Automatic annotation (TrEMBL):
PANTHER family: UNCHARACTERIZED PROTEIN YGJP (PTHR30399), UTP PYROPHOSPHATASE (PTHR30399:SF1). Pfam families: YgjP-like (PF01863). It comes from the Bacteria. Residues 25-230 form the YgjP-like metallopeptidase domain. This is Putative metal-dependent hydrolase. Signal peptide: none annotated. InterPro entries: UTP_pyrophosphatase-like (IPR053136), YgjP-like_metallopeptidase (IPR002725). One of its GO terms (molecular function) is hydrolase activity. Keywords: Hydrolase.
Length: 237
């Protein structure tokens, strides 16, 4: 019997089927020729254990799907001319001499620092990540305030993190966590993540009632989900 599930990763969501068999003694993951991820387990293994098994194998699954799709995760070099996403728009990186700082100027994302440090990869990367996190904190909190009023919901603490396998989460105490890299997505797609996690304050699952509720405040949520599946791998720093 097949059960459709979704594994959230930093690069894209992975749909997979769990197939239970009375004769099987071990768990295994198979990626078919058309890219379908199939998890085969014995009947006595619970869905929770199967999902935990898949989660622990997520890096292997991603690497195999990358090969299958012939899609490589780009590596950042932090040199002038490199392209960066911010709120869905592509900006060209410009390294310039001046006081230390990062910002947006016209169509450029600039890093300003002393000329002696132009080739300091770690410094430039840390400066950019810090700027993105600050922007994420500001905009995510603004959108949370906006949608929580519309949805008439109250949430707990808000955490902006560098999550490796998901874009957002809602704890049992209604504390919300967001991957700061969603600030690279178009604002409408970012809003979907906000609505999604706020909806978990009421619905602690992904059943039909949850998605119906999400759709009330984000009619194009399916388009946004698809966007993250197809473009999530490009949201890297």
């Amino acid at each position: 019997m097949k059960k459709q599930n979704i594994l959230k990763t930093e690069y894209f969501d992975i749909e997979y089927n769990i197939i239970k068999s009375p004769k099987r003694k071990t768990m295994s993951i198979i990626i078919s020729e058309d890219g379908e991820v199939i998890v085969r387990i014995p009947n006595w293994i619970s869905d929770y254990e199967a999902k935990k098994f898949v989660f622990n194998k997520r890096e292997w699954i991603v690497s195999k799907l990358m090969i299958f799709k012939k899609q490589k995760i780009p590596e950042r070099k932090y040199v002038s001319g490199e392209k960066f996403l911010y709120l869905g728009k592509t900006y060209t990186l410009m390294i310039m001499e001046g006081n230390y700082g990062v910002g947006i100027l016209d169509d450029f994302l600039y890093i300003s620092l002393k000329k002696d440090f132009f080739d300091n990869y770690d410094l430039k990367r840390n400066m950019v990540i810090k700027w993105y996190k600050n922007q994420a904190k500001k905009i995510i909190n603004e959108r949370l305030e906006y949608y929580s009023k519309i949805m008439k919901l109250q949430y707990g603490k808000v955490f902006i993190r560098d999550q490796k396998t998901r874009w957002g989460s809602c704890s049992g105490k209604n504390n919300l966590s967001f991957n700061f890299k969603i600030i690279m997505a178009p604002k409408r797609k970012l809003d979907y993540i906000i609505v999604h996690e706020l909806a978990h304050i009421i619905y602690k699952h992904h059943q039909k009632s949850f998605w119906n509720y999400v759709e009330k405040y984000c009619e194009d949520y399916q388009e946004s989900r698809k966007w993250f599946r197809e473009n999530g791998r490009y949201l890297i720093l």
